[in-house]
Design goal:
By secondary structure, this protein is of the alpha/beta class. It has helices at 23-34, 66-72, 91-109, 141-158, 180-185, 210-222, 245-253, 266-272, 277-284, 287-290, 298-304, 312-323; strands spanning 14-18, 38-43, 57-60, 78-81, 112-117, 129-130, 163-167, 170-172, 195-197, 205-209, 230-234, 238-240, 261-263, 294-295. It has a seven-stranded parallel β-sheet, with helices on both faces. A three-stranded mixed β-sheet has the order 8-10-12. The protein has a two-stranded parallel ribbon with strand order 6-14. The radius of gyration is 20 Å and the shape is globular.
Length: 346
């Protein structure tokens, strides 16, 4: 009689997730758990996280401290680098030291690095259709930092540290509060009475539903043996071809097709730049809403056969429900979500 043995907890592969309280980090942590990984999450105050996310192994640490990352990575075969400074701030001081610490830890323990890519790496010379090999000549400080970050990862891969990057558009999804959808288009915790649209009518924009991004990472990871040491893929995600389809999807989700729409106050943001650092950082990224941008996913589809894709209406409804913008099933109360700071808390 064949003995059937269940894999014990310690026998399951271990993934360290940096930024597990953020949108992409949280989505990847959930997906890794579903794939049978143990998930270790690092945070400066782990005792505040254990009750909310008991399935993770919480350890104390800071992604800016190399010794903390190395200690947390012990035994890991995967390191998810999902940390970013919150609110676009302090990129120059934080982004590159954090990736250096992740690379050093991955090299020491023999882990593969998983990291989401951004469209900041590209300038207008590559628009409207951006491929993995498009020239990276960004127009912003943040873009130049991200180019250098990926250069360091590519160098690490050449030295034996496997790297997987999946680049996608603007994130939206459940339990993700630090993104344009949650902080720009709608007001968390309130019913949707209007939508703020940062883009121009007729200008295409790339969006990415976080569970789809996480599933794409997992399917690529399932085929890790066939990946190059430095693997980079683009997702098409939800492409809003005229800048109005996301607004329409929100309207359908709340049962009001003709939801009032107002433009983002870019002029006011420009005037406030000298006095409000956040406005300065947001204004720098304005070009991403004034130019049509679409990510070419041909390489991904060729490798996987398809791109994971949740129908937009279901994706938007799940996102609004998580943000507390939809009435609960009893039609009496609204959720008041605890929005998380994107990847910034470790």
């Amino acid at each position: 009689m064949t003995e059937i043995r269940t894999m014990t907890s310690l026998e399951r592969p271990l993934a360290l997730v940096l930024g597990a309280t953020g949108g992409i980090g949280g989505a990847l942590a959930t997906a890794l758990l579903q794939r049978g990984y143990r998930v270790r999450a690092m945070h400066r105050a782990p005792e505040r996280q254990t009750s909310a996310r008991p399935a993770y192994e919480w350890v104390r640490g800071d992604a800016m401290r190399a010794e903390d990352v190395l200690r947390a990575a012990e035994g890991a075969s995967i390191i998810v680098h999902g940390v970013n400074p919150p609110g676009y701030r302090n990129w120059g001081e934080l982004v590159l030291p954090m990736i250096d610490n992740t690379i050093a830890a991955a090299r020491a323990v023999g882990a593969r690095i998983l990291m989401p890519g951004t469209i900041y790496n590209f300038g207008r010379d590559t628009f409207p259709l951006v491929a993995e090999d498009s020239r990276q000549e960004p127009e912003t400080v943040k873009g130049r930092i991200r180019v250098e970050l990926e250069r360091r990862l590519e160098q690490a891969a050449a030295e034996g540290v496997p790297v997987l990057i999946v680049r996608a558009g603007d994130f939206f999804g459940p339990d993700a509060g630090n993104n344009w959808f949650a902080q720009g288009l709608v007001q968390p915790g309130k019913p949707v009475r209007f939508v703020v649209n940062p883009g121009r009518k007729g200008v295409g924009h790339a969006w990415a539903y976080l569970p789809d991004v996480a599933e794409t990472f997992m399917r690529l990871l399932d085929r890790a043996d066939a990946l190059p040491s430095f693997a980079r893929f683009h997702m098409d995600g939800f492409y809003d071809q005229d800048g109005m389809q996301m607004v329409a999807a929100i309207g359908r989700a709340v049962g009001r097709e003709r939801t009032p729409t107002i433009g983002f106050p870019w002029r006011l943001a420009g005037l406030a730049r000298p006095f409000m650092p956040l406005m300065r950082e947001l204004y720098e990224m304005r070009y991403l809403w004034r130019e049509t941008i679409r990510l070419d996913n041909s390489r991904l589809v060729e490798f996987l056969g398809e791109e994971p894709h949740t129908p937009i209406d279901g994706a938007v409804k799940a996102t609004l429900r998580s943000l507390g913008c939809l009435v609960d099933s009893d039609n009496l109360t609204m959720r008041n979500p605890m929005l998380r700071v994107a990847g910034g808390e470790q």
